[in-house]
Amino acid sequence: MNAVQTYRYLASSTLGHGALALQTSGGPAPNPRFFTGFLTTPQAAAVGLLAVAEVARTRYHRPVSPASLDPVVTGSRDRLRFESFSGCCGVYARLDALPEGLDGDVVEHGTTNVDVNTPLREALSRVGGLDPLHLSVGPDDLTVSTMDGAVVEKKVPLPVRWLRGFAEVQVLAARFEPRAELAATEAAAFLRRLPTGNDRSVLWVVPAGRSLRLTSRPTAGAVCLAGASRLVALRPMLRFAKTLRVYGPTVAAGSAPVPSVWELDTGALRLSLTLSPEPYRGFSGEGAALTALAGDDVVDDADLVSALLSWDPTIDVDRLAVQSDLDADRVRGALAQLGTAGRVGYDVSEAAYFHRVMPYDAGRAERDNPRLVGARALLDAGAVHRDGPVVTVRSDGQVYRVRELPDGALTCTCHWWAKHQGQRGPCRHALAARMVTSNQVEERV
């Protein structure tokens, strides 16, 4: 299912006479210009943009013929971000053009879809090291390249899976920590040793001297590498990179597969790939954002925090806490809620959220999530009853019991929990129990 929005472009994206004219559909003001200027590392920027576009047109699980999807671009004060998901929604790619990579002004702030069509991809592939690359992001851009002034209207399908993917990635990434950093030479040697075919194995990597070592089992400090061939999109950027950084959540011996982030840094640009826990799993079904969607108080907090966001390159949680008169944990909960509507993302390199706006209403992620819809239906039906530490849920003629573990997680006697052991978020019974035990709704007897 797609959420179809209609955008108007003043012209097609083109590259001519050494200048890139990248057209977008606009932002918070009529015909804004997000950025006008040169990219200081043109060839690396062209390669990075191609990588983001390539991820958008690739299905890593059960590959099929590529279908181009439009990456998302955000202008945010002193930088530009280009984002996409793979066709299978199991890889999230982002290229950050940092202040050092831009020679121009971000005079407007906003988020839109970018038309990266086949002619543009071919043109970017021909950008040489001495070619200047002028980027004009906005529907009324004037560039060095000759423009014909034609108006192009495009209906851009934005898959609902992308919204749910954005919601899940920011919740998951906020739990990540830096796990390893490799110099360019060691990074190139490691990445080039990885398989390039349709690899479905789940491996783990651990620091080993100046490089990384592959292992088949998790240990403390390890990073999950599921479907190593999915890192192939990083390879063209290797010749420009200074470092490779790897991020992931805390794991221990016996841990289940988890997501990870692999980031190449050139100094002016950062290209990162976030991999889902297993090659067949798309981020849209991970369920990490469900708890953030379940509460009523957090919605009110999100409305308050939303009004205070100001397109800063990174979001200062402490500043928002002071301005909103909420504690830092409630602010983080509000940001997680805003992320479910695509309004914030998370940058592991900065260890901070960032602001963007997607063409979805705030309630879309909740309405489109069957587990959350099912949990609210159980509450409305009076099927959820709290009895001390146990919550009993009656559903489809069955009785399920939800218990809270010492770490605060909930277990359930249903088939979903038995199959996934909490690795793909809570089941609908646990969500309903959380709503009751957190006093977010009144229990209906």
From TrEMBL:
All residue ranges annotated as the SWIM-type domain in the record: 400-438
Recorded GO MF terms: zinc ion binding
InterPro entries given in the database record: Znf_SWIM
Keyword Zinc-finger: yes
Keywords: Metal-binding, Zinc, Zinc-finger
Pfam families (UniProt xref): SWIM
Official protein name in the record: SWIM-type domain-containing protein
Organism: Micromonospora endophytica
